[in-house]
Amino acid sequence: MATMPATTALPARRTMLRAVAARDPDWDGLFVVAVRTTGIACRPICPSRPAKPENLEFFAALIDAERAGYRRCLRCRPERSTAAPSWWPALTGLLAKAGETHVTDAQLRHAGIDPVAVRRHFRRTHGTTFHIWRRSQRVTKAQHQLREGAMLDEVIIQSGYASHSGFRDAFNRVVGAPPGRARQSETLIAAVVDSPVGPLMMATLESGVVLLEFGDQHRLEEQSARLRRHFDEPLVLGEHRHLDQLRAELGEYFAGTRQTFTVPLVVRGTPFEERVWGALRQIPYGDTCSYVDVAEAIGSPKASRAVGSANGRNRIAIVIPCHRVVNADGKLGGYGGGLWRKKRLLELEGAESS
User: Fold this and answer.
1) What is the CATH number of the domain that holds 95?
2) Is 46 an active-site residue?
3) pLDDT tens, 131-165?
4) Which of 14, 251, 276, 302 is deepest in the core (most CB within 10 A)?
């Protein structure tokens, strides 16, 4: 739940106007909207009466709006747009105390936590309910124990289930296979992290990270299909040390204090794709190169168009820096995550682009 500082560039004005008009939560934390007639800076989802578009000014971060003379909105509190909710420490404490047992709405209320707020938060940040997320974590831990050779009865007891049938039912719903098959399979663990370029979905195996993708629905659908082709394993929400490391390294990257990533990766594609992705990792921070340059670097100088296609199929954005590849004339070219994101990432790194 660590927050990340904003970068300086912005999406197109018409895009932000649509987001503000719809109070679209997917844009919350990506920019600040300020109203010239009131002198107030707000979040895109502010419930206040909307101002006329011509009176709106947009900033990448609250600090930029304040430097321009705007005051923080007291209704939507833009300083909290990417912060963990105030009840998060109480929730983590409750989960630690509960161990593997089920956490009820009554227990949440007793801890001073509104169950509705928890449900809304997990829907927005994880795309699922709190209880499904919690169940996924318990089952994923159980699957790991089974793969390590633990006895089934022992795992069921430690998982907090009252019966074999309850455990098997939950296991089937999360993993898509009975517990007996868990000893020969591995689950992809996924989580969502907020960033200045929007929510990022990340996923890992025990051997390394396999996915870091922008939270746009069409991108996730495309990459999920590719994941299934290369990793025939179920995908569940949970926590993992590789995801913790990636989350921390992304925070440092967006803060401008990290230029290279050390989190282990698992990269699977065609031999050509893997050569392209390997070449991308050799592009230094702050530099750009053309598709032709990458084609020449992998020994296929006439394959620049194929390089562009492989670039678009990169499943580990930012860490494998496909955003550093531009057209031969220096223009940005295409980017699966949207050109505004590519521009923001390059500006963050201090790279020149047209």
Assistant:
1) 1.10.10.60
2) no
3) 777 766 666 666 666 566 566 556 555 555 555 56
4) 276
